[in-house]
Every structure is written in structure tokens, then in C-alpha cells.
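Suppose you are handed a protein chain with no further information: no name, no annotation, nothing but its sequence. What can you learn? This example shows the usual starting point.
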Amino acid sequence: MNDEKKPRGLFAIGRLVVSMNALSAISAKDAFTAMRRHAAGDWGECGPEDWQKNEVSLKEGFRLRSVYRSSEEVEFWIVTEADRRWTTILLPEDD
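A reasonable first move is to predict its three-dimensional structure. Written in C-alpha cells, the prediction is:
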């Protein structure tokens, strides 16, 4: 595939880390689909206020947090740190 046709995210995700709880609770397919959405600026099921915070954070280089549900209805988060060196997939209780 030509590099010009590859989909690109809006920001660097850095190293990907998955919590043990998330690893056992969500499928790789659900995690991959959510990561693509997160990197594209689709913040999932976060509320309007958090969505707006992410839009500002995207422009200003702050921390980004998205909320998704797996096909099994397990809520999970994806968080990219402000320095864009780490992105973590975790369950709310992992925070």
C-alpha cells in the first residue's frame, strides 16, 4: 500500500500498554477497533464536556481519554498521555 493511502491518526499513540484486567475482559478485535477510533479523534462514549476537553487537549497537547464498550458490554478506557509516549487501554477500576 502506498504511504499516501495509509490511514493516519491525528496524534502519535506512543507505546501501547494494556492492563491485565482489560487484557482478560476485552477481545483484541474490540481493543484494535477502539484504538483506531481513538487515534482518529472519535472519543467514544465520553460525555459532551469530556469530548470538548479532548478536542482542546488534541490541539494543546494535553492528555486524551476515550470511553468505549466491548462487544460484551464491558466499559473500557483508552488514555494517551500528554507527551504522546504512552497509550493505555484499561478498565475504569484500573485507574
